[in-house]
Amino acid sequence: MATKQLSIKQALAQENHFLKAGSAISIDIITPAGQKGRFKSTFIGFMPNEYLLIECPDMGKLGNFSQHVVKGMKVAVRGLVEGQKASIIGFMSLIEQTVTMPSRMIVLSFPKAVSIHNLRATKRVDTELEVTVNLGTRSWPAVMNDVSLTGCHLVMQDCTQKSIPEDSDISILIGEESGEQGGDESGEADEVDRDTVIAKVCNVKQDEQGFQLGCQFAVQQQQTIDKLIHIALLAEK
After folding, report:
1. In sequence order, what are the residues at sequence separation of 6 or more whose Cβ sits closer than 8 angstroms to the Cβ of residue 222?
2. Could you read off the pLDDT of 65-81 as tens digits, one per residue?
3. Is pLDDT at 189 greater than 50 in this prediction?
4. 48 Cβ partners below 8 Å, 6+ apart?
5. Please, what is the Cα angle at 220 between 215 and 225, to 5 degrees?
6. How many Cβ atoms from other residues are within 10 Å of residue 231's Cβ?
7. Backbone conformation region of residue 16, classed left if phi is above 0, alpha if psi is from -120 to 50, else beta
8. d(CA 135, CA 211)
9. Distance between CA 140 and CA 158 in Å, rounded?
10. Residue 191 above 50 pLDDT?
11. pTM above 0.90, yes or no
């Protein structure tokens, strides 16, 4: 992935090189014990060289990480910046404080530098995105571990190498619905409002985590794959 390091002054001076109000972002919270959680948020705005404002993630999803949303905690922020070439922006920041009015928000320190990653490159994005895999009339739940413009890696529990052999053409459903699970024969997986990516299974391996599928995307799906990478980038861990 083509990566460009910019000072915050350079980023703010160039159009489409920083987040816009209302942009979907993810924040990584790393505890002193080394545990990392990724949570969805929304970028609200900033005061140049002073602070950033973001929406506080859902407290129910924060779980034990909620105790680490305190002053001085390091967070990694990532989001999509729109422009002629869609790119991922990332930077490190510190929690300055939290506020509850008029809504629950987190005040972050203003970053000194940002990294811009071109989405058109092929480096993989690590994620833990729940998807549904369809082959013929059967469907299985799966977790996408990483994704690039050319392919992805899937982990599946409820299938076998005979169920999804190498060189199979599968469809990967992304979105909120989980679909029918466990190899349902009815083909009635809920596909409403879900995007689908077609891929070929290049290799299948089994280990203690389940069945590992290496997949290559079919051509002429660029818009959907771009959307998939965006969703994967912001998927919560």
Report:
1. 149
2. 888 899 999 999 988 77
3. no
4. 12, 110
5. 55
6. 18
7. left
8. 15
9. 7
10. no
11. no
Both structure tokens of 69: 């949303």
Tell me the DSSP string of the chain. --EEEEEHHHHHHSTTSS--TT-EEEEEEE-TTS-EEEEEEEEEEEETTTEEEEEPPPHHHHGGGGGG-STT-EEEEEEEE-SSS-EEEEEEEEEEEEE-SSS-EEEEEPPSEEEEEETTS-PPEEEEEEEEEEETTEEEEEEEEEE-SSEEEEEESS--TTTS-TT-EEEEEESS-----SS-SS-----TT-EEEEEEEEEEEEETTEEEEEEEEPSS-HHHHHHHHHHHHH---
pLDDT digits (tens, 9 = 90+) for 134-164: 998 999 999 999 898 889 999 998 777 678 8
Two tokens, residue 55 = 């929406």
Tell me how far apart the alpha carbons of residues 35 and 226 are, in angstroms, rounded to a whole number: 29
Q: 213 near 204, Cβ under 8 Å? A: yes
R_g of the chain computed on alpha carbons: 19
CB-CB contact of 9 with 46 (8 Å): no
- Tokens for 15, please give them: 């159009």
Report the pLDDT averaged over residues 89-105: 92
Please, what is the average pLDDT of the chain?
Answer: 82
Residue in the structure block whose two tokens are 């660029």:
222
DSSP strand pairing (113-118 vs 36-47):
unpaired
